[in-house]
Protein 1
Amino acid sequence: MTAPDRAAPNRNTLWARAAVDELAKSGVDAVCVCPGSRSTPLTVAFAAHDDIRVFSHLDERSAAFFALGRGKRTGTPTPVVSTSGTATANFHPAVIEANQARVPLLVLTADRPPELRDSGANQTIDQQKLYGDAVRHYRDLPEPAADDRKLRSLRTAVCRAVGESTGANPGPAHLNFPFRKPLEPVAVPGDVPEGFADEHPLAATGREDAFVSVHHAPAAPDDDTLNALADAIDGTDRGLIVAGPDDAAGLTRTAAVALAEATGFPLFADPLSDLRYGTHVETAPVVGGYDGLLAAGPLDGDLQAPDVVLRFGASPTSKPLRQYLRDSGARQFVVDPAGEWREATFTTSDLVVADPTKTARALAGRLEPRERTAWTDRVLALDADYWDAVDEFTPEAILEGDVVAAAAADAPDPATLFVSNSMPVRDLDRFGRPRDADITVLGNRGASGIDGITSSALGAGSATDEPLVLVTGDLAYYHDSNGLLALDRCEVDATVVLVNNDGGGIFHMLPIEAFDPPFTGQFKTPHGLDFEPTGDVYDLEFARVETLDGFRAAYRESVDAAGTQVIEVETDAAASHRERERLEEWVASDR
Amino acid sequence: MTAPDRAAPNRNTLWARAAVDELAKSGVDAVCVCPGSRSTPLTVAFAAHDDIRVFSHLDERSAAFFALGRGKRTGTPTPVVSTSGTATANFHPAVIEANQARVPLLVLTADRPPELRDSGANQTIDQQKLYGDAVRHYRDLPEPAADDRKLRSLRTAVCRAVGESTGANPGPAHLNFPFRKPLEPVAVPGDVPEGFADEHPLAATGREDAFVSVHHAPAAPDDDTLNALADAIDGTDRGLIVAGPDDAAGLTRTAAVALAEATGFPLFADPLSDLRYGTHVETAPVVGGYDGLLAAGPLDGDLQAPDVVLRFGASPTSKPLRQYLRDSGARQFVVDPAGEWREATFTTSDLVVADPTKTARALAGRLEPRERTAWTDRVLALDADYWDAVDEFTPEAILEGDVVAAAAADAPDPATLFVSNSMPVRDLDRFGRPRDADITVLGNRGASGIDGITSSALGAGSATDEPLVLVTGDLAYYHDSNGLLALDRCEVDATVVLVNNDGGGIFHMLPIEAFDPPFTGQFKTPHGLDFEPTGDVYDLEFARVETLDGFRAAYRESVDAAGTQVIEVETDAAASHRERERLEEWVASDR
């Protein structure tokens, strides 16, 4: 590790080293750096730090999504650094996604010194509160100086930002660093007084650990709340546990299983809940077919009406499930560590502001042990029937959901599986059968954009040695094609499943399909792009397949191979949508 | 033209038609639409309007820069439309550039209805004041309704936004449109009462012209100010007119020439001032060599010290010029129609808040006619010597500035020439000799980012039938490679001069060059990208040349040809920088 106190040639170097020192001591082990001049002190300090891996990115938008994906996978923020100017605004989409998906993210923007603001100076914009309310915390840092109090303030501010970006409501934090020239580590006599580090060891060197170690203490519900929950559960055989997209501060698999066993209720596991895949699905009552089941029509009799629903995570991806919950009339407990509402059907009756895992464990301990309820058995039987029906269905064209399902079914164990918006995550929800394999499924479901998908996936992949699979559509692939540069520059390997239906396939599911024009020109937007040459620009092999069998063969070969392969499956969105509807009818007729 | 009042099937359709109707009546003739569902009412209304050309874009970042470039070229805003969510944040870089470069831009974001805000609803983010202080005007529009007062409010708001985005301080304006389903033009019985249009003609149909025609009245300086200016000018032979990067509300060529003739002063014309090229350079005292002259060392004697400087436009691109003005001790009048400071050396002594063209004309009329001063003749002689020296200099490696200079020298007449940051605009400043040809030079010098360059150029190109030339670097080309999609989708042809020095060549000009690592890995960032395959992805021909002569031949062929050609010139940034320095010495020795 570099000794941040020794021989800092000028105040900027001293300052940036102190900031990076605190980041490393706070657990940061990687950074995404975008080249630029004003950020030179930070870049130099990061590059010199032995414990921080530097990922160099040339497009700030992709850089921020890469950092987001990595933070999502690790639970620790990966800072992203840029120079001043519009570079900083390119981070904005990822900042919003991090905010809404509760992903730790630290944005470190360099800025011109205060006297140059609003002056017409080059690359000088108003970076104050640039991301508005989308960040948990913002600080405009003071001007660097070899000053005891200022340096302690800086160290405190960095720890504060890390603390704000993690904890019960993880998200983005933004630190703005004004720097005056010289930005490089050139000697500036007198800038850092001789002996400064010896006279001010705490300011110059910090502590052995972080200057301020932030100890988050996730709260369990109090007794009254636990009793209310237990009473509601004890009073009925008809209950559900619904796990929506998971947060960094979410529900662990073991706690979820313990709760399902204690309540005897089925566990509806969103593909992004981290509960649809894992060894627990062998024994726990994990239901993955709810989306297809509910889309096929109302369930029979009292299956329509659970009495109590325990909800974790964000709002489920499945629209049929959201509608089912809305119409169920059940008492709905939402467990949310941040105390926020993420439930736009407005059916919550009780908000439990507490740590999900602690809540599940405490509740499981509080309940009288009981058998799996008859209601649960009926739900599980329906679910099994659903998967049988899906297996027996023979589509007449490539059903995009089959591609997504195969990518999950044939994924290595363990693996990280990143699914894009708009269709892959929905298709995985409907067609991804729970599997006894340690697959970490991730997606950007905070704001559900199609921007930054590739970068987010590669960032997640950079965090582990697990194989990485990305399932994406052609629009998302195009949108973040710059993100492919990270394959080489950040040394990430992936299998990219590119479902290419030449445009916005999801619009076939919306009423606008009936209005053409403007449907084709403005919504479907076929682009006719040939993505094969991206294999010549970036560090990847490109293969195109035309059948599901061809896909499965190429996919299995890719996940076993080194390097990155993009497997493009050309589909017809309209035909796939028709097959999706035909499968819904098939499921309904089978019931 | 569509009749916006007739048979609107529902309130959203009625509402969006009214908005688009007002835009068209306010002079908007094109729109950039990004596909999405929530924005369906706007998209459908734009697509149905006979007088508005729809440019469909798949990457919102590129879309906004395309709209920026078009607005920069035309002076009229080209609205950019997106769905809700992170799509809107992708506009942010272009919004900031539009703000700082004073380019008319209208951002129309669709939003979820108010009851879904902060609820966890899909693709719902906080879009309130999303761009902070970077917009001239923001309105969160009310919920659509077939309501007289609301529709009049909408029409007024649209006209207001157009008015705010144009005028003395052009820039971006943001309208946020909440829409509730159904978004498509499906019949909703009772939503628009029968006979509504007949009973409320003004609300439903608007006026024949814009609902509110905004009449900007650019102000000339008052007599006292004119007298002060005239006195300062009359009192000296040593004066300069400095024209920085131009605004939509800037100084016209004829007014600039009139002022130069009346004062007898030389006109230092920034490449982005719109004054370096044009028929006027044959007779007017246009100086283009100041950057190279001043970089080569101090001028002789009193050439160092003009008594009075008249400044127009933004801060000059040339750093040597900015330093020269700072150190000159001159009285400096800055004429700025918006009354803002864009002068970070803080040497302004008088700010004239008035229309530049009117000021120049009024001042020219007020002054006693006089001959060109001896001082001016000496400046012009120095300038002529400079260009001779540049002609005589024989570089030992490709000098990037020679490529940029050739692109300007051999550009068709007329043409639009878009120059990227960071080096092309600086190289044009130094090496672009004034030329008697109607070349409109544009660049993004508001915040001087390298983002969105290609899209800005293609947007500018879409506005005229003139040939379009873009001179860009490899980082900018990579950064906005998505913008190349507009070649086909928006039917723009261009000649793209790609100066590829494999990374951030500008960093060779900064002290960080001496610190390696991290110079190569984190600043220079060679990427080794082979851009030739972009020719197979997008609608363009790709050619690579290795010499200046090869470039000139390929370039001349391209500007005469249909379609788009990318001409890549591989250069060595370090070598080019050395040649640049050698040329500075050459110029100095020649003096």
Protein 2
Amino acid sequence: MFSPLIKELMESLRCLPGVGPRSSQRMALHLLERDREGALRLAKALGEAAEGVGRCRDCRTLCEDDRCDICAHAGRDQTMLCVVENPSDVMAFEQAGGYRGRYFVLMGHLSPIDGIGPDDIGITELLQLVTKNQVSEVILATNPTVEGEATAHYIAEELKRRDVEATRIAHGVPLGGELEYVDGGTLAHALAGRRKLVT
Amino acid sequence: MFSPLIKELMESLRCLPGVGPRSSQRMALHLLERDREGALRLAKALGEAAEGVGRCRDCRTLCEDDRCDICAHAGRDQTMLCVVENPSDVMAFEQAGGYRGRYFVLMGHLSPIDGIGPDDIGITELLQLVTKNQVSEVILATNPTVEGEATAHYIAEELKRRDVEATRIAHGVPLGGELEYVDGGTLAHALAGRRKLVT
Ligand SMILES: [Zn+2]
Ligand SMILES: [Zn+2]
């Protein structure tokens, strides 16, 4: 019943997480009836981000420059590295405050069942960065899930072999949850209470 | 903490109804991490729809052609006109089935407090269409809200002056609700139980 351009818009909106047929219809009609400027701005932003955003050379997080702001910041301690699964985890730590080291973003976690091995989450690059920056402590802040724990342990073993200290954030992070939904205070506490993973 | 292109994408996503800062971040990262093809398809669909979708010459619904499929369909009875507030209401009636007449889409309702008068919702065009197509019955299917009722009554008075029968959908539509969320059976029932508004 809707015309082809409207139908295509409704179907395309389904690529957004949490958007089903009902809300894609509501979104499409809202934009066309009331906010075409917003639709055009979003179209431009989507195109530019999808084509322009790459990975930071050092930490692998999403960004359009060669290196992200944090890696490019001379004031951040490069001998301390916090390993997280997602770019939003970096944001969560930065918002919690109190951490002055750098990050490494795996963009996922080990998942043998899905065929995701060390190479797919940048472990080689991580170990190279550790050597290059003479990192003295790697804080493993993967999610407190089965896969996150397994990933942390895998990295800890690799670091132990290279005589680099690996710690795991500990207190306060609820088990089975996603790191990015944890409040800042809890995260700061977990960071302060970190312990060596392989002793 | 996010780079400019990612920030702009997150902000642009806020034009979508029901999308706050939390979900816009989740959506932006999801697209960039896992579905750039979907992002580019959506960018294209948004641009094309925002620039290409206009209004049907007859019923005023959203469509990119001169006339929408229903108005262009020779088999639809043009002497029966169902007046609705939104394009999604047309969809609701079509999905309910059983109606073979045409529609007129106000794209809103009268709202003096917001400065929305008869001209803003196409009443002149509606009355012209009624004359042009020799419409014998206008079914007023505006939403069962205060504004929807007032709009229906305003149109009914105008039609009465022109000796055109105006009916209002009646039974089964819950008061205070939005028409587009009513199930097909209820809508079909309400349509069948319509009555003259100004007697
Ligand atoms: Zn970086
Ligand atoms: Zn039409």
